[in-house]
Amino acid sequence: MVHSRVWVALGIVGLTVLFLGVLSVPLSGWARPADISTAATWSTVYSDSFTTLSPVWTITDDTEGQYQWGVTPYTVEVGTMILEGSGLWAAGGGAVGQTQTWPTGTYTNSMTTWAIAGPFTLTQKVWDMHLQVMGYNDMQPGDELFIGLSADGVNFTGITSTVSTLALQTLDWSTRAYSTSEAVWIGLRFTSGAEGLAAGPLVDNLTLAFNYGASVYLPLVRRDPTPTPTLAPTLPPYYFDRFNDPASGWYVGDALRYNTRCYFDGTCFSGWEVVANMSYVEDNYQIHIPTSFHGGAGTVDTWFVHPAFAAPMPSSLYPLPQRYCIEARGKFASSKGEYDPWWTYWGIVFAADASMTNFYSFMINANHDYAITEHINYVFPGNRRPDGGEYINVQNYPVAWTNRDLDELIPTMVYNTLKVVVDGPLVSIYANGVHLETVSLGTLQRQRVGIIGGVWEITPVDLWFDYFRYVPNCP
Questions:
Q1: Architecture of the domain defined by 2-211
Q2: Are 2-211 and 239-472 equal in CATH topology?
Q3: In sequence order, what are the residues at sequence separation of 6 or more whose Cβ sits closer than 8 angstroms to the Cβ of residue 59?
Q4: By percentage, how much of the chain surpasses pLDDT 90?
Q5: Which residue, 158, 217, 221, 410, shows the most beta carbons closer than 10 Å to its own?
Q6: Residue-level pLDDT at 5
Q7: In the chain, what is the straight-line distance between the N-terminal and C-terminal CA atoms, in Å?
Q8: 280 phi and psi, to 5 degrees?
Q9: If DSSP codes are grouped into helix, strand and coil, which group holds residue 5?
Q10: pLDDT category, 1, cuts 50, 70, 90?
């Protein structure tokens, strides 16, 4: 009984952090650009609080049964309370794993363990599937947790998390596609790197839901006098791009800059240079900035380049409402270690005019720091303001880079999740589910949102964006 009451309390806590997780897709449904969404009629197909290991799960590993997924008890601090629960731990099963205690126990290096549940039968064609788990992710660089769905129990599609945290977080995956398969399987996979040990991921409160949609019929008969209609509440349109479709609408191609540059031997060059290239790479949107001639190997001047791009959202979503949320996940894909490449950054454009000439952005850099930047008279691809004083590419800092050196919160070599909540003049910024600060920026342009990334000096740079999501009137 105590166990049940405790988890009622934890469920309430879970709701409060739904939008603070690594990925938080609302169950009310969302649609990609140009998709036609249907009214959501979500049905929970399977849920598991892992008090015991249900027979629907099949556990495998490559450690000869020493370390694998297993049910284990754990405690969580919520305010002044310490609540007890149980979850599925990636190092809590097997001959060695079951002898350990969360979170003092550890996995072993270079291991993989799967937990697969199913099959779960579809009673009809579904419009969407949604998988959600809550839990903890104590990992080392090189480790990853995967959650996803499969139509055959073998080939899974989902998301991978490499963000290490002992704070409660939410992971979500939605197929977004019309499924015609007759069954679906749930897959959880943990893979550890070759160095470093930690407790590993522990998941709880897993839910699989199907959206069977709803039929909407138009009236064929008109009656006079026409009655005054009663407006029914409608679901807001969402925008979400996983960058797994190269035709989803983001800019692809080169960024050119006209430049005069002089080499150390005194020779000079004037002309157009390709200072960045944008493309879709491995289900990511990539900004590539090549090696600058300053480094002695490049043939172009790519210092102080920061391309910004508006999300190709339907025009019906503009202007933006007073309150909205934007979330994106990205990484410094070319990084060779912490703080590399030095003074490289990426972030979210959260308020811009229609021409993307004046906007605000929330950015993090490879040095474990963050800032909010105001861009005035921005000229693509965002060169440094000319030495002659021309009033273009001006940058002000409502929240300045101050070398906070947040090593654990904003690591360099893994994906980081950024979120911005705009509420009138107030802007709240988050990194990996942690609230950083809230500032008042006054009247904001609400015509465009998007992404930005670039360098001040060190090149080459590859910036990868794993997804971009916009939610109007968010909780």
A1: Sandwich (2.60)
A2: yes
A3: 53, 68, 69, 70, 93, 113, 114, 115
A4: 49
A5: 410
A6: 31
A7: 32
A8: -95, 125
A9: helix
A10: very low
